[in-house]
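DM between two lab members

TW: hey, do you still have the DinB family protein entry open?
JB: yeah, one sec
JB: this one, 156 aa:
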Amino acid sequence: MGEIIFSQLEFVRSQTLKMVSALSEEQASIVPSGFRNHILWNLGHIALVHDAFAFQLTGRPSMIHVQYKDFFANGTSPENWTGDAPRLAEIIEILQQQPKQIVSQLSGKLEESVSKPYKTSSGFTLDSVEGFLNFSLYHEGMHFSVIKIYKHLIQS
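TW: and the structure you got?
JB:
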């Protein structure tokens, strides 16, 4: 597959950012009826997972604040947040910068194996930099769909 993954990452991320470009902080913070999270949570979760998959789980330092885990890790929800969550503009800035950071750190290193393979919640094992990046695109696509649905619900 080669370095095409970086172009795919930039494309997927541009679509995610385009989807939320006209949303206000208030709109991004509405939890649709019957759901646990909102658009802001999904965006923060995308940033957190990409950081973990591209950097932390491949043996590199995190590029985002450690507090993101408290707000955006699996199982978290805005209804349980304590303290001030990151604002939409901050998360958007991280999402804009991440593809550049990933290319800068991982270009030419896609074939690297990781010291500790990771098994996803669906049972798929990731054992290389390229594997982590490929899976992160799938992950972002899932959350893109959720964001699209939430956006429709809050604007109805």
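TW: got it. Residues 4-155 form a domain with the Four Helix Bundle (Hemerythrin (Met), subunit A) fold (CATH 1.20.120.450). The mean pLDDT is 96.
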